[in-house]
Amino acid sequence: MSVPTIKHLRAFVVRGGGADYHDQGGGHWIDDHIATPMARYPEYRQSRQSFGINVLGTLVVELEASDGTTGFAVTTGGEPAAYIVEKHLARFVEGAKLTDIEKIWDQMYFATQYYGRKGLVVNALSGVDLALWDLLGKWRREPVHHLLGGAVRPELQFYATSSRPDLSKKLGFIGGKMPLHHGPAEGEEGLQKNIAELAEMRARVGSDFWLMFDCWMSLELNYAIKLAQRAHEHGLKWIEEALSPDDYWGYAELKKQAPRGMLVTTGEHEATRWGFRMLLEMDCCDIIQPDVGWCGGMTELIKISALADARGALVIPHGSSVYSYHFVITRHNSPFAEFLMMAPKADEVVPMFNPLLLDEPVPVQGRLGVGALDKPGFGVRLNPACTLHRPYTH
Ligand SMILES: C[C@H](O)[C@H](O)CC(=O)C(=O)O
Ligand SMILES: [Mg+2]
After folding, report:
1. Which pLDDT band, with edges at 50, 70 and 90, does 137 fall under?
2. What gap in Å lies between CA 52 and CA 37, rounded to an integer?
3. Contact 161 CB / ligand 1 (< 6 Å)
4. Looking at residue 163, which CATH number applies to its domain?
5. What is the Cα–Cα distance from 357 to 380, expressed in whole angstroms?
């Protein structure tokens, strides 16, 4: 069977929302005094944009095959990732058959290993990998979830991440994950405020609705244990990313000391099968949360998920919109998905990568039927109203 080759790869950057969902305008819940590792410096406490959380912007990787088929994907990484894609990774893609996904992944990873392995380089590599899966799906005229083995359930179910789980409940979600607002530098008073927010939200949503805290790497072990203990009486379902992603030992201890029934989750800033093997083998958490745009793409997520499955761990990918949905619907050990609320006041459902994609499906009453994913590739298009900038060529 003759398979087209990949003729062109192009990398673009775009600002304002998109895959860099922290790149929002003022007054957004996602940038309102959220605890971070930088919150120990009072001048960087009120806004994450003040320390540069949105400095990179979105990376768009576009591929064109010899038969004219095109594919694309978006992730974070912006201009430095565009440089890596154009100047380094393109050589492994152009000229290859569009079915050579595994080989291209291997070449991209090992060619960059001396300066890569995690972070920006793996974001860039993930963007290329996702664009390859999109291209393969477009060429075969099949959705990516078919290529992954097919849906194991007729619909996805979502929890929502926002400052307003009470509104998420009204919108039909199964739970609400709130950002933690006060870190250890704000002492006992901050801790009490965190617990008071949880207690107030519990009173608003009732006892059955899931509530979780996203700590975005901001805590140290003792604080995390204290927070978990005090949050337990308010029915906190899980404590997420409490510690630095490098502190595998801290996570292992937190998991040991967390109140019975409370889950420890982490992994959105972890990458590759080797990073997740460490989390799993050191018994760091109950749920791993790889971001398919950051962990090594779909090719790597398949491997990460298989490792987790063999150990009985759940995989609930971080954000990532359609790139997650096509995966989650195909895996028994991913029973639900995350939806990040991008409306500034978290009071309505807007597409997660708004405004960058057209046809981006969103949950209705907290659910999304597989039919919404039944389009070739990942089923989305770039919005021509968003200005793409190509900073490098090769
Ligand atoms: C709300 C969190 O601080 C972050 O912006 C998103 C995140 O970590 C998640 O969705 O998980
Ligand atoms: Mg998180």
Report:
1. very high
2. 13
3. yes
4. 3.20.20.120
5. 6
- Whether residues 235 and 131 share a domain: the answer is no
Q: Establish whether 318 is a catalytic residue.
A: yes
Task: Report which ligand 1 atom has the smallest distance to the Cα of 161.
Answer: 10
Atom of ligand 1 nearest to the CA of 162: 1
Work out the widest C-alpha separation in the chain, in whole angstroms. Answer: 67
Q: Is the pTM of this model over 0.90?
A: yes
Partners of 175 in beta bridges: 210
Q: Is the CB of 180 under 6 A from ligand 1?
A: no
Instruction: Provide the number of structural domains found in the chain.
Output: 2
Handedness of CA 351, 122, 13, 24 (dihedral sign): positive
394 inside domain: no
Angle of helix 297-310 relative to helix 272-281, nearest 10 degrees? 20
Report yes or no on 208 lying in a domain. Answer: yes
Pair 217, 104 in one domain: no
How many whole angstroms from 64 Cα to the centroid of ligand 2?
34
Determine, yes or no, domain membership for 382. Answer: no
Domain that holds residue 71: 6-20+56-141
Give yes or no for a contact between 247 and 40, defined as CB atoms under 8 angstroms apart.
no
Instruction: State the catalytic residue, choosing from 88, 145, 269, 318.
Output: 318
Q: Decide whether any atom of ligand 1 lies within 6 Å of the 342 Cβ.
A: no
* Residue among 86, 87, 129, 122 at smallest CA distance from 105: 129
| Statement to judge: residues 166 and 231 lie in one domain | yes
pLDDT 10s digits, 218-232: 999 999 999 999 999
> Considering the domain boundaries, does residue 391 fall inside one?
no
